[in-house]
């Protein structure tokens, strides 16, 4: 950082305006990509899923909570894990503040994990979260949406993740987000899922870090998120 160029205010403004042209181009491309995402075909969900939640047993339909759009974060928390994934916890720290805003745009957002409900509830209390979190332990939901891996996949190492087989993802659970729509007749459609770096758009801390001089500052770590801790585990 000490060797970074320092220029006059006029030269800075010239460079900033040139970069603004690239930002505007990126914004237009992002809007176009978002429109193409909304135009993707849907697939009807014919399978019945029943989750364990704070209101007891709840179907996928019930999770919509009277709204037509459902956004699910696949939180990595396996049935035999002692606590939730630190990276997913980093993502989940951003959820509570937007819940009311999403609700007023006809969107229900919640998290789903395979860990039993009592573990989810205890971890949620520890972390101070209020968003809804349900367990898919008794269903195939996580396997069907490719965020949990079967014993065979774990044994062979050929996990199907992020739309390809043979992923080197090392854990038994993986992160992702899935979106569903429910029409007036009650029919449910799967409209979109994304995984891996596609989840960056849900993490506003990363977007804020992208604005500062050091950026995400992860180049010297053994893997990009090695610095992340659960928010109650940072040394300070």
Quick summary:
The protein is an alpha+beta fold and 236 residues long. The chain has helices at residues 9-38, 60-63, 86-92, 99-103, 117-127, 141-144, 151-156, 204-209, and strands at residues 43-44, 50-53, 56-59, 69-74, 107-113, 133-135, 159-161, 164-167, 176-182, 188-195. Helix 5 (117-127) links the parallel strand 5 and strand 6.
Q: By helix and strand content, what is the structural category?
A: alpha+beta
Give me the side-by-side strand order of the main sheet: 1-10-9-4-5-6
What gap, in angstroms, lies between the N and C termini? 25 Å
Mean pLDDT: 95
Strand content: 15-25%
Count, helices:
8
Q: Can you tell me the residue ranges where pLDDT is under 50 for at least 5 consecutive residues? A: none
Largest sheet: 6 strands, mixed
Give the proportion of residues in helices. 25-40%
Helix-strand pattern: HEEEHEHHEHEHHEEEEH
Count of DSSP E strands? 10
Global outline:
globular
Rg is: 20 Å
Task: Describe the protein's architecture and organization.
β9 and β10 form a beta hairpin. The mean pLDDT is 95. The strands form three sheets. Strands 1-10-9-4-5-6 form a six-stranded mixed β-sheet. A two-stranded antiparallel sheet has the order 2-3. Strands 7-8 form a two-stranded antiparallel ribbon. Helices cover 31% and strands 20% of the residues. The longest helix has 30 residues. With 236 residues, it is α+β, with helices and mostly antiparallel strands. It is built from eight helices and ten strands. The two termini are 25 Å apart. The chain is globular, with a radius of gyration of 20 Å.
């Amino acid at each position: 950082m000490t060797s970074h160029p320092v220029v006059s205010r006029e030269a800075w403004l010239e460079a900033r305006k040139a970069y603004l042209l690239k930002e505007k181009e990126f914004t237009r491309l992002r809007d176009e990509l978002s429109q193409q995402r909304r135009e993707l075909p849907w697939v009807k969900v014919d399978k019945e899923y029943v989750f364990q939640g704070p209101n007891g047993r709840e179907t996928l339909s019930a999770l919509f909570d009277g709204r037509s759009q459902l956004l699910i974060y696949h939180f990595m928390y396996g049935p035999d894990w002692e606590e939730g994934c630190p990276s997913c916890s980093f993502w989940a720290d951003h959820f509570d503040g937007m819940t009311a805003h999403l609700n007023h745009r006809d969107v229900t957002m919640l998290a789903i994990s395979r860990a039993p409900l009592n573990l989810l509830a205890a971890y949620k209390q520890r972390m101070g979260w209020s968003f809804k979190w349900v367990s898919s332990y008794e269903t195939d939901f996580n396997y069907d949406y490719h965020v949990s891996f079967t014993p065979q996949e774990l044994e062979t190492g050929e996990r199907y993740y992020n739309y390809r087989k043979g992923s080197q993802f090392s854990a038994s659970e993986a992160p992702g987000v899935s979106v569903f729509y429910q029409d007036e007749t009650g029919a449910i459609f799967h409209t979109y899922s994304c995984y891996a770096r596609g989840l960056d758009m849900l993490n506003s801390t990363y977007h804020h870090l992208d604005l500062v001089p050091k950026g995400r500052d992860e180049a010297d770590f053994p893997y990009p998120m090695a610095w992340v801790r659960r928010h109650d585990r940072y040394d300070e």
